[in-house]
Structure formats: structure tokens, C-alpha cells
Amino acid sequence: MLKLRNLCKVHRSGDIETTALDHIDLDIESGEYLAITGPSGCGKSTLLGILGLLDAPSSGEYWFDGHNVAGWSEARLNQLRRGRIGFIFQSFNLIDELTVAENIGLALEYGDVPIRERRSRVDEVMAKLGVSHRADHRPSQLSGGQQQRVAIARALVSRPALLLADEPTGNLDSAHGDEVMRILRDINAEGTTLIMVTHSPSHAAQASRTLRLLDGRVLVDAMAA
Ligand code: ADP
């Protein structure tokens, strides 16, 4: 599904250049559950941003569903991202001026889902994530665990093939964190490819494969026993 070849990313700010990813080769099959770990600054977020088509590599190849997308226009990348990729962030990234249902529905606004179907898709994911009774609430009226469930519902409403999660439990207590991990495992078990950045060794151990980065390189690439 995803293939990186000789991929490098150099961040430039002013005169300073930082090599965030240093000649990465990586193959990710459809249906995998991959945890990306490593110390702060090793390139985890940069890698996730490139995999999610939010950021472009400096050099090398990124193949997504058989297309080398390095060099694609922003518009074409946006279209691919909206159709195929969902994101979950540590900070939930919900809009507090909108209700829970509106936050989730926003993800369908630019797609080709007919208006009639949007409401039923939103209702379906709210039920799946157990937040239907909060449909008309604002995100700030919910607990952190509930907000993350809403954010997961928003990521799933467009039925992505690939779900990217950046420290999804980073702002949650351990009980809510464990609950989010269970939900993610179920989503993967239903067939969605899942790639998660995590600092937690116990959460990384739940993935079927762990990628450990150091200084922008792959130090360990291990399948779970
Ligand atoms: P991690 O997610 O593992 O903490 P990052 O991918 O955020 O690592 O960062 C990798 C390296 O790239 C770090 O040295 C970081 O300082 C640098 N970096 C990340 N983003 C930028 C940016 N936008 N501009 C300049 N340097 C950056």
C-alpha cells in the first residue's frame, strides 16, 4: 500500500538545515498496524506528516497505492488525502464553535458524499464510538476521552483506508488511553491500515509491527512475536 525509497527530509529554517529523515526505505502492507517509536527529535512526526501527504519529501520516492506521489500537485494530494487518509492527533483538534455532529460532518464537506447520506454516516460513526448522546454538545463540554472518541469518529466518517495517529493517548489518563487503544485495535481488526506514533512501550507493543527511529534512520523494524 505504501512504499518509501531512499526518502529524505531536510527542514530548513533560516540558514539552519536539519536532516529529519535520512534515506528511509519502508514498505507497509494494507491492513498492517505499525507503531513508530523513538526519542524526541528522531523524525517520527516528520515521517507521519509525509506518510499522510501533509508534507513533501526533500528527495526520494513515496509510492501510495502504486503511484509515486512525490511531485504531485497540492490539489491532487488533497484529493488523495481526503479520500484515503484519516488523522488523529494528541490534541484532538476539534472546533469548539461547532457541535460534535458538526465537527464530524465537516470531514465530509469537501468529498463526494451526497448531503442526504452525510447525516446517516455521521450518526453511524457517532453510534460506533459511543458519542451519539453528545451529538449537540460542544467539544469543550466533554471529557478528554470523549473528545478523542469524537476525533476518531471524525477521522472514520470518510471511511479511510489508512488511519494515522500522532500520540493519540498523549493527553489522556491511563484508563481513557487504554480505551482509545482498544478502539484503535478494533478499527485495525476491521481492515483499516493503522500507523501510530507513540512514546508508550506498552501501547507500541499492541501493534503488529514496531519501527524504531534514531536520528532520522530506521534503527529497528520488528514484527510482533
Ligand atoms: P519527533 O516527532 O521524533 O520528535 P520531528 O519529526 O518532530 O521528531 O523532528 C525531527 C527533527 O527535525 C528535529 O531535529 C526537529 O527539530 C526538526 N524539525 C522538525 N520540524 C521542523 C521544522 N518545521 N523546521 C525545522 N526543523 C524541524
| Number of distinct helices | 7
How many angstroms separate the termini? 23 Å
Radius of gyration: 18 Å
Question: Would you tell me which CATH topology applies?
Answer: Rossmann fold
User: What count of structural domains?
Assistant: 1
Content of β-strand: 25-35%
- Secondary structure tally: strands: 10
- CATH architecture classification: 3-Layer(aba) Sandwich
What summary fits the major beta sheet? 6 strands, mixed
Give me some keywords for this one.
six-stranded mixed sheet; 32% helix; alpha/beta; four-stranded antiparallel sheet; binds adenosine-5'-diphosphate; 7 helices; Rossmann fold; globular; 225 residues; single chain
